[in-house]
Design brief:
Helix content is 5%, strand content 34%. It is built from two helices and 16 strands.
Length: 219
Amino acid sequence: MMKQLMRAPRILTLIFLLAAPALAGCEGVIDPGTGSRLSEDQLIFARADPGAPPLDALVVSFWAKPGQTRSAAIRYVGVTNPKYVLCMEFVVPAGALLQHPDGRRVEAGDSVRITVRALDPEAFRFEFEPSGLRFAPDQPARLRISYWWADRDYNGDGKEDGDDRKIEENLGLWRQERPGELWNRVVAERNESDYEIRANILGFTRYAVASTRSSDRID
């Protein structure tokens, strides 16, 4: 059903899968709280509600430069409330650029063109380029994904019930190095009240908002 822009407020629950200092150095490492490497059919991927607004773009690009904070975002069209307009935001802080894809260290005066693709306008899956670009562990890039406009019938059985709530409670950020490979759950934090997932990023790959099935819940 079409999401209402004024939901009954939930109790604010900020779930840290790992403490914030560890986030900076653990991108790409399997979340130690899960130990998970799963195939695609073992996961439930968040999908957009049928009544969700369209995205303003499927591909966004920008030039990242040392000493300057740069960012790109994908937003929803026609949403006036700023709390619900964002789909994805990617920020490269001033000191984040570390290494070019060919292994050269990023120096003052360099620039790197970064591209983010929404692989499916109906899903919360994103691909980042150029592959091989690295960010500094002490000043990582930052990824924020809002799943406010996700379909709350996560398992697609035609009703929103306790199984869906369990699936939502276990939503996280998963990464896949190459198409067809296993997905790894990575260190991230989920804000249940704001329907957001945030993570620090050290390198590029594919990222998606997903959960294990309720019967296979990871604690």
